[in-house]
TrEMBL record:
Protein name: EAL domain-containing protein
Regions that span the bilayer: 349-370, 391-412
Signal peptide: 1-27
GGDEF domain ranges (all copies): 585-718
Domain EAL positions: 727-981
Family matches, as Pfam families: ABC_sub_bind (PF04392), EAL (PF00563), GGDEF (PF00990), PAS_3 (PF08447)
Coiled coil: 508-542
Matching InterPro entries: ABC_transpt-TYRBP-like, Biofilm_reg_signaling, EAL_dom, EAL_sf, GGDEF_dom, Nucleotide_cyclase, PAC, PAS
Domain PAS: 385-457
Species whose genome carries this gene: Paenibacillus apii
Domain called PAC: residue spans: 461-513
Length: 990
């Protein structure tokens, strides 16, 4: 036993020592873990939907962890400021803020933030591991050093979206891709195009990144039903115009004739039809999960890069309604947002439960009513039984009572004493004595009923009352009796029986309570029925409101809100209906466009433009005829359908009346505006038997009317279609001319008089298409202006010419000048002056060596707006030449106000020199006028020695033309200048 005790003590000591050894370890484990720091670097700016979604996903996941890290967030703002200066400023910012802070992990969103972190983390950010989000496959493959890096790839795969679109509309054959030319836009588009081509579905892809916002809008207005739009990212169009995604997407969807599918979920609620949408928040959450694993001690190199689980199949109910697509027609498993509230669908389970409960309650009420009937029958039977018992009890050994009417002393049978617990003699049997044990509430009733019977009012005495037993409790008794009278009518005896009805009264009380509960239940059911009826009435009322709303939307869908006229959709349906019902009839379709409407909009504002459109609609309504219908087709375009045109002159008379009606000026507020219209006419059935053909041909005729000088009408002819087709072909190939290096410049020399020194060159554009061959500028410049391709082409010409001249100057040639022709479309751009100065800075050309040539008609068309810009450029040292002078209609008063430095005499005044015609004195007069106004005068089109001599005599300052030299290719200019320097052609030698 002693040995066992010692052994136990030693074991206890060892246990204590073991626990003491564990104490430091436990203390260390209990110590608080060191705080960790996470830096989130965003490529774009706060407020950009994609960036905000990723940031929300990252922060919510990090903050929900057991030990949330300290979160620091920075924005590179690369989408708005993609420059090296911005990178340098951001570098200095990070260096200053985090120099003394240890960073445990870096989370980057999108490519530019990742590139910055990968380049500078060793120097600035504690060489922390990088977890990326928002980098696509191309971006990830370009990462050279992938050590200490993991993250979530932005899996850009349009395959599921295309499959969903084909599920909804199997006839799709064209996919129009909407994206911009930013780094992310081009990278994303490259992946999308690659994926779509790999699907081998025979789809034709159309990229829209080389279009301006206006061109994109015009394109989507006329897309056929076998097309869809697929948007990736969009921040600015080809002109550099920045457009907020929300506005651009919403406006594009509103005018598009086909659904706008998206690759990213931030397009939802902003016009996106739907698709397999990448979720920025899911990307952020998955990236944060990887970051938490890294913070927990895992090596980033062992964590695989994630691809899946970052998208959702979702559609916008409003867009489904817009394109008349039912929810049931969507691919299985699709999510629908913005679905309107439906009481039945939302509370379907509750409604069914209420109906079931109501049905059960009806059955329950029926059972209770049946039970109440049974109770009433039982009660009736009980009363009948009591009556029989009372009659049988007379003279029986029961609770029998007998009142001596002379002494008023009662006799009670022994049963009465047994029931109440009293002893015989213990109760005063005199009426006044024993009546004291009757319940006070029942005493008055009993006395009345007794007196009624004794007075002959009732055949029998009957009363129910409570009597207090010896125990103190009250028992219910039913007393029945009958008075016996003598022949004289006096009282002889009053006797009867008593029955203990305490149990029956309890049952009746319970039955009464059940009946009251039944009434309460019935009242509740009635209230529930009223409530259900009220809810049903609300459902009916909502259905009525819904039908009224649908009717309102139908009216809005078929009518133009601004002008009050039926819209394009109404026109299409009515035109199709007319053709179907009038196969042998005749009609004329007038396609009307307001001339120079864009200029009115730009100079007077959109409010004036809308007012003009509204008054134009009213004027068309005033020009009503019983067989005509008027529509607003879109923008400043209107369509009139004239039916039953049996005589050809009807169409002509109506067209002339239409042209004449718009010659009356419009009063827009305090301004009086004169406008004209151009009208194209297609006749049914000779110019087309379908709505599409008639509209297309009328549009072609209208365009020809504009080319004919505006303010007139033109009937469609087959030759117009050929011209239009040729124009479409030219425009198609012209859109690829810059990218394919098909454009070039030639330079025609200009020399000064009288010494013949080389002043410089005029830059002339040339287009040699591999498909069309050499295309004259007279053929494609007008088309480029109409489709606004003249803006990128004109900017290319200006930059190319300035680079060419700056190169000559650097080689010691010159100093020469360069003249560049400018289109009115360029001049009307808000940033035209800034663009010119920017090109001069980029090319290093001094502004005084640049001369811009503007045609006289251009300046007269937009005098005030253009004059301000030209005056500003003139102040910067740039020369302004008025080209083709004398062919326009400007007065000398206007000429004095123009900010020009040079007058160019049109070739038509030079061709007749030095003959005896009117050109000779007129050319000299132009030179004199120019000199009187302090301007330099240049003559173009000089082809003979005699013309040159005449111009020298009238003191013309500069000349150009074939006599000096034809336009020279860029590679031959230097050789020509050396040869000309040797020859030194001057006026005196000529």
């Amino acid at each position: 036993m002693v040995y066992t005790t010692k052994q136990g003590i030693w074991r206890l000591l060892l246990l204590v020592l073991f626990l003491m050894g564990l104490c430091p370890t436990m203390a260390e484990g209990a110590a608080e873990a060191p705080q960790q720091n996470v830096l989130i670097l965003h490529s774009y700016h706060k407020g950009f939907s994609w960036t905000d979604d990723q940031n929300n996903g990252i922060e919510e996941r990090l903050k929900s962890s057991k030990i949330p890290p300290v979160i620091y967030t920075e924005y590179l703002d690369w989408k708005r400021y993609p420059s090296e200066e911005n990178l340098q400023r951001f570098y200095e910012l990070i260096k200053g803020k985090y120099a003394k802070l240890h960073i445990d992990a870096i989370i980057t969103t999108d490519d530019r933030a990742f590139d910055f972190a990968a380049k500078n983390r060793k120097e600035l950010l504690s060489d922390a591991p990088i977890i990326f989000s928002g980098i696509n496959e191309i971006g990830y493959d370009q990462i050279k050093d992938q050590k200490n890096i993991s993250g979530v790839i932005e899996n850009i795969d349009p395959s599921e979206t295309i499959r969903m679109a084909l599920y909804i509309n199997p006839s799709i054959r064209n996919v129009y891709l909407v994206y911009d030319n930013s780094e992310s836009g081009l990278s994303t588009a490259q992946l999308v195009i690659k994926k779509l081509n790999s699907m081998n579905l025979g789809l034709k892809l159309h990229s829209m990144n080389q279009m301006s916002e206006e061109e994109i809008n015009r394109t989507v207005l006329s897309l056929s039903s076998d097309s869809i739009l697929l948007a990736t990212t969009f921040y600015s169009d080809v002109t550099g115009k920045v457009t907020e995604l929300d506005r651009f997407s919403s406006e594009l969807s509103a005018i598009s004739t086909v659904p706008l599918y998206y690759m990213y979920e931030y397009g939802l609620n902003h016009g996106a039809f739907g698709g397999n949408l990448l979720s920025g928040k899911l990307l952020g959450e998955k990236a944060a999960n990887v970051a938490l694993r890294v913070l927990g001690g895992e090596n980033p190199d062992t964590i695989p890069v994630s691809f899946a689980g970052t998208s959702r199949n979702v559609f916008d109910y409003n867009q489904l309604e817009h394109f008349h697509i039912e929810v049931k027609d969507l691919p299985p498993g699709s999510e629908v947002i913005n679905k309107p509230f439906s009481f039945y669908e939302t509370y379907r389970g509750l409604v069914l439960i209420l109906i079931a409960v109501f049905s059960v309650l009806i059955v329950f009420i029926a059972i209770l009513l049946f039970h109440a009937g049974v109770v009433r029958r039982i009660r009736k039977q009980l009363m009948e039984s009591n009556e029989r018992f009372s009659l049988a009890a007379f003279g029986a050994d029961a609770v029998i009572w007998d009142l001596d009417m002379t002494t008023m002393i009662y006799y009670f049978s022994d049963r009465w004493y047994e029931l109440l617990g009293y002893e015989i003699g213990e109760i005063d049997e005199h009426y006044i004595g024993w009546s004291n044990i009757i319940h006070p509430d029942d005493l008055e009733q009993e006395e009345r009923q007794r007196k009624d019977h004794l007075s002959g009012k009732t055949v029998y005495y009957y009363s129910e009352y409570r009597i207090r037993a010896k125990s103190g409790e009250y028992k219910w008794f039913q007393a029945r009796g009958k008075v016996q009278r003598n022949e004289e009518g006096g009282y002889v005896r009053f006797a009867g029986s008593m029955t203990d009805i305490t149990d029956r009264k309890g049952y009746e009380s319970k039955l009464q309570m059940s009946y009251q509960e039944l009434e309460s239940t019935y009242e509740e059911l009635t209230a529930l029925q009223d409530e259900l009826l009220e809810q049903y009435n609300k459902v009916v009322e909502n259905q009525t409101l819904l039908q009224a709303s649908e009717e309102k939307y139908r009216v809005l869908a078929f009518n133009d809100e601004l002008s009050g006229l039926p819209n394009r959709l109404s026109l299409t349906e009515e035109l199709k209906s007319f053709i179907e019902e009038n196969e042998s009839g005749q009609a004329a379709l007038f396609f009307m466009d307001i001339d120079n409407f864009k200029y009115i909009n730009d100079t007077m504002g959109h409010t004036f433009g809308d007012l003009l459109l509204k008054q134009a609609g009213e004027r068309l309504l005033a020009l009503s005829a019983g067989n005509s219908r008027r529509y607003r087709f879109g923008g400043d375009e209107f369509v009139i359908l004239l039916k039953d045109t049996e005589q050809p002159e009807q169409t002509v008379f109506y067209a002339e009346a239409l042209i004449q009606s718009f010659k009356e000026p419009f009063q827009l507020g305090d301004s009086t505006v004169h406008v004209s219209i151009s009208v194209g006419i297609a006749q049914y059935p000779c110019d087309g038997r379908t709505a599409e053909a008639l509209l297309k041909n009328a549009d072609i005729a209208m365009y020809r009317a504009k080319q004919a000088g505006k303010g007139t009408y033109m009937l469609y002819g087959q030759n117009m279609q050929q011209y239009f087709d040729e124009r479409v072909i030219i425009e198609k190939h012209l859109r690829e001319a810059i990218d394919n290096n098909e454009l070039s410049l030639q330079y025609q020399p200009k020399v000064t008089l009288p010494n013949g020194e080389l002043w410089g060159f005029e830059a002339l554009i040339r287009w040699n298409s591999p498909v069309l061959g050499f295309v004259s500028p007279l053929s494609f410049i007008g088309i480029a202006e109409d489709c606004r391709l003249i803006i990128p082409i004109g900017e290319w010409v200006l930059r190319k010419a300035c680079l060419f001249l700056a190169g000559l100057h650097r080689q010691g040639l010159g100093p020469y000048h360069i003249s560049v022709n400018i289109s009115v479309i360029q001049l009307l751009m808000d940033d035209f002056a800034e663009t010119v100065l920017k090109i001069l800075r980029e090319t290093g050309l001094n502004p005084r060596y640049l001369e811009l040539e503007i045609t006289e008609s251009i300046i007269m068309e937009s005098f005030e707006e253009i004059s301000i810009k030209l005056e500003y450029l003139k102040q910067q040292g740039i020369g302004i030449a008025l080209d083709d002078f004398g062919t326009g209609y400007s007065s000398l008063s206007y000429l004095k106000q123009l900010p020009i430095t040079t007058l160019k005499i049109d070739k038509s005044f030079i061709d007749g020199l030095p003959g005896e015609g009117s050109s000779m004195p007129l050319a000299g007069s132009i030179v004199a006028i120019g000199h009187d106004m302090g301007l330099i005068v240049t003559a173009e089109g000089v082809e003979t020695k005699e013309q040159l001599e005449f111009l020298r005599r009238v003191n013309c300052d500069k000349v150009q033309g074939y006599y000096i030299s034809r336009p020279i290719a860029e590679g031959q200019v230097q050789a020509w200048t050396r040869q000309y320097a040797r020859q030194m052609i001057n006026v005196e030698k000529c």
